[in-house]
Design brief:
Layout (H helix, E strand, L loop, with lengths): L1 H16 L10 E4 L4 E2 L10 E5 L102 E3 L3 E2 L4 E3 L9 E3 L5 E3 L4 E3 L7 E5 L5 E3 L2 E3 L3 E5 L5 E3 L2 E2 L4 E5 L5 E3 L6 E2 L27 H24 L24 H8 L10 E2 L8 E4 L2 E2 L12 E9 L5 E9 L7 E5 L3 E2 L4 E9 L8 E10 L2 E11 L4 E6 L7 E10 L8 E10 L10
Parallel strand pairs: 4-7, 5-8, 6-9, 7-10, 8-11, 9-12, 10-13, 11-14, 12-15, 13-16, 14-17, 16-18
Antiparallel strand pairs: 1-2, 1-3, 19-31, 20-21, 20-24, 22-23, 23-31, 24-30, 25-30, 26-29, 26-31, 27-28, 27-30
């Protein structure tokens, strides 16, 4: 009697909860007698006329592309969306294979916007983005999206580059070489740019480390070594390298040149021996005298004679060039102002209030940050891969996925277990509605499968808050976007930190174009 009783009880339970043993997934059906039921078998002998699609019941029906039931989401990457469509570019969520996705804000026309194919803005997309001087066909004078690059100390070059013309007084303060050509088979067209070293720290003007490098139209003076060549196969054409302690210094033979003007060289020959043309004597400073009259002209003439004499004496003594001096016009004596009271003095001595920051470029201010790692303090700009880690700004570089990107901040953790590197930027007063934006990835490396954790922290007073923590592995590029509006109007410090993942040292982690940028919050996704 126990078994029939058990069957009877189970049948009553099934009837109470409304489920029959044959029923599985829930859906709505219209029977042939025009009644609507929950389950198809409830239509009985009359049968089902048609099925009604219900998104979210866990069953792919009719026009649905997917249906994960309770797991559908408009916020999670790679999820079935709330309208039972597959995840896609333009849904506002960064899914697999996407570098960015700003939803309806994706654009192929707006600078710095995520493109409509969910690719990050890049050189060659036909839109002039931040840090691009142009973005057009190379035949029209735009190459690597810059018409020219402004010379600066520790300018590392890995691809064909043209410098901006003009005279640039730049000392070699950081790593050896003001301009460092590190890539192979690279053309550096100085475009007539004149690099001048003045005073201390004038070690090397241009350092050539790559093989097969071509230098054209460069002018260097005032350095201990004008051009230093470490490799072979380099060619120099139409360069003026004069008035350096050593104009051209090649460590090895196998380099050549044509039509270069130089005098003091090592391991350098062209067109027979030495340089094509010797350097002229160092010119004397030119006296500049504007046309004036009266007493001012007389004063200018006397002052010019004294300056010329002093310059000639200094030149003969080997003390270097003297800057030309302009005669000055007589200046009227200002009237005596009333004495300032102690109260007024205290008020005027107070520094003006610092305005809020509306935009900020981390790569331009990277040398102002304090860099440290698990092993100790890190000197920014070092080209060594030490135990302590490394931090460097790179104008461009090839990523692990083969794409070449620019405006890179290389942050290599130290080589100890649990290694990291962190840059503490100077305190800023943030403006309203600011976002931290960048792309995280790895430079091309033999250890391309290694990964790292990228982290952004905000330090307000004694409290430090981690606002972003993103793991990046292999060749993947990940878009970083952090809303900082909660700190609008407050003075905070921003910290960039990279940590090695377990199992090895990260392979050259880089931040691509890290910046603060104004923006608007996205509305929360609605479930339909």
């Amino acid at each position: 009697m126990a078994i029939p009783y058990l069957r009877y009880s189970l049948s009553i339970f099934i009837l109470i909860i409304g489920i029959s043993p044959m029923q599985t997934a829930r859906a709505d059906f219209v029977c042939n007698n025009n009644t609507t039921v929950v389950y198809a078998n409830e239509c009985g002998a009359g049968g089902v006329d048609h099925e009604i699609m219900i998104c979210g019941n866990g069953r792919v029906e009719l026009a649905e592309e997917c249906d994960d039931g309770v797991d559908i989401s408009d916020n999670e990457p790679n999820s079935c969306r709330s309208d039972c469509t597959l995840y896609r570019c333009g849904d506002g969520v960064v899914d697999n294979g996407e570098q960015c996705d700003d939803g309806s804000e994706n654009s192929d026309l707006i600078p710095d916007a995520c493109r409509t194919d969910c690719a990050a803005p890049r050189c060659g997309d036909g839109v002039r983005d931040l840090y691009e001087e142009c973005d057009a066909d190379p035949e029209y004078g735009c190459r690597q999206c810059v018409s020219c690059v402004t010379p600066q100390d520790d300018l590392d070059i890995y691809e064909d580059t043209k410098l901006c013309a003009g005279e640039w007084q730049i000392n070699d303060n950081g790593t050896a070489g003001v301009v460092r050509v590190l890539g192979d088979n690279v053309l550096l067209n100085c475009n007539g740019a004149r690099l001048v070293g003045i005073g201390a720290n004038t070690r090397t003007g241009i350092l050539v480390a790559g093989t097969g490098v071509i230098l054209r139209n460069c002018d260097l003076s005032g350095y201990q070594t004008g051009i230093k060549i470490l490799s072979t196969g380099s060619a120099l054409f139409s360069n003026t390298v004069c008035h350096n302690y050593k104009d051209i210094d090649a460590d090895k033979t196998g380099n050549f040149g044509v039509s270069n003007q130089c005098s003091r060289v090592t391991n350098w020959t062209e067109v027979g021996t030495g340089c094509s043309e010797a350097c002229p004597p160092r010119p004397l400073p030119t006296k500049i005298a504007p046309q004036v009259s009266g007493k001012a002209a007389e004063m200018g003439q006397r002052l010019g004679q004294v300056t010329e004499g002093a310059s000639s004496t200094s030149q003969r003594a080997g003390t270097g060039r003297a800057a030309p001096v302009l005669p000055r016009e007589p200046v009227a004596t200002p009237r005596r102002q009333p004495a300032t009271t102690a109260k007024e003095s205290r008020s005027t001595a107070r520094p003006p209030a610092t305005g809020a920051v509306g935009a900020y470029q981390f790569s331009k201010n990277v040398a102002k940050a304090s860099w440290s790692s698990r092993a100790g303090k890190v000197r920014f700009g070092s080209d060594r891969m030490p135990v302590t880690g490394m931090a460097r700004a790179l104008p461009n570089g090839q990523m692990a996925n083969g794409r070449r990107m620019k405006n890179l901040l290389l942050t290599q953790p130290d080589q100890r277990t649990g290694g990291f590197i962190q840059g503490d930027y100077p305190a800023l007063r943030l403006g309203e509605n600011l976002f931290f934006r960048a792309t995280a990835g790895m430079l091309k490396s033999r250890v391309s499968t290694a990964g790292a954790t990228f982290e952004v922290l905000v330090k307000a007073g004694r409290r430090t808050t981690s606002v972003l923590k993103q793991r990046v592995r292999g060749a993947k590029l990940v878009t970083l976007n952090v809303d900082l509006s909660r700190w609008g109007g407050k003075r905070v410090q921003l910290l960039l930190r990279v940590s090695s993942l377990e199992g090895g040292v990260a392979a050259s982690p880089v931040w691509i174009n890290p910046r603060l940028q104004s923006g608007t919050r996205k509305p929360a996704a609605r479930m339909r």
